[in-house]
Amino acid sequence: MPNAGAALLEKRIPSPKPEWLSQLKEKIIEPELPIIDPHHHLWDMRGNRYLLDELIEDLGSGHNVVATVFLECAAMYRYEGPPQMRPIGETEFVNGIAAMAASGNYGKTKICAGIVGFADLTLGASVIEVLEAQINAGGGKFKGIRYGAGFDKSDVINNSHTNPPPGLYSTHKFREGFAKLADYSLSFEAWLYHTQIDEVSMLADAFPDQNIVLNHFGGPIGIGPYENKRAEVFANWKKSILNLSKRANVYVKLGGLGMVLNGYQFENRQIPPNSNELAKEWRPFFETTIEAFGPDRCMFESNFPVDKVTSTYAVYWNTFKRLVSHATKDDKRYLFHDTAKNFYRLDL
Q: Which residues, listed in sequence order, are joined to residue 116 by a DSSP beta bridge?
């Protein structure tokens, strides 16, 4: 049976344009600064391949990326077997990539040192069978579950590849399954849109001892009915983010603003944006979040190859470094390395 989630992503995610991206070269800022990239994908879609070779090429752009964390993307699900068990194939695939990297034949970066997969938490308590299988498949690297809940009534907005109903995180069955994460010391990745961030606050209140990380700033939308309403979107987003920051068990990934969803349309320019341009455009999101959550609950992320539609790996990490150029050494250590290391309990 075909993987419906992967098919959706294959249609939605535009392929990076290598020739367009190659127009931009930048000198690497603070090349020795240790980085953990806590959010990237691996997949082989028609016309959009991002596997070990492609990742290695980006990692070799000059920044000191010492380790990475893989995030689920409906890749390489098993073709047969019970539907709830098919996502185990993704973890098996990624653990194989991690084993390749561990050979030392591909550089020093500990690629996929952490793996975040999928389990259908709406199975309720019976999801433990899936969680245990994911942990076993991960070979000690399996760290958590992501369940995308992005939903908007506009036909222009693509809902998450999990095809969620509105208000997923508040449903009884989801929470019954969610409660089982603690039994296995697994973290949770919340991926949804800025109009839904308050749903993460409610989930965090219901499970104050469960570590949760909000992906991509909570997905501020800039297309469809939100196009040309950036000030209004930011104001609503900021209100929800400041409220969410009061939950000590919630962390945030700083990145993911280069997606088509965000509406900046950099991908339509003749030349890709440089790190100065991106830092200037995105600074309010970064500064608001870091100030609210603190560096020890924030981590920079690449979200590659999805964000590669906007600019290069080198430019993204230069952007992040520009945004915190005046931060203390300790704050930088958290933002680029230690928050991710601690959150995912990475053995580095």
A: 71, 144
Amino acid of residue 26: E
- C-alpha angle 81/86/92, rounded to 5°? 115
Mean pLDDT for each 10-residue chunk of the chain (348 residues)? Answer: 61 81 95 98 89 97 98 96 97 98 96 98 98 98 98 93 95 98 98 98 98 98 96 98 98 96 93 97 98 98 96 98 98 98 96
C-beta of residue 267 within 8 angstroms of C-beta of residue 307? no
- Distance, in Å, from the CA atom of 304 to the CA atom of 16, rounded to the nearest integer, reads 10
**DSSP H helical segments within 4-107, as ranges?**
4-12, 18-21, 52-59, 88-102
Selection from 100, 86, 105 nearest residue 42 by Cα: 100
Phi, psi of 302 (to 5 degrees): -90, -35
State the Cα–Cα distance between residues 347 and 96, nearest whole angstrom.
18
Decide the pairing of beta strands 64-71 and 48-50: unpaired
Amino acid at 231: A
Phi first, then psi, for residue 63 (nearest 5°) are: -80, 155
Question: Rounded CA gap, 254 and 217, in Å?
Answer: 6
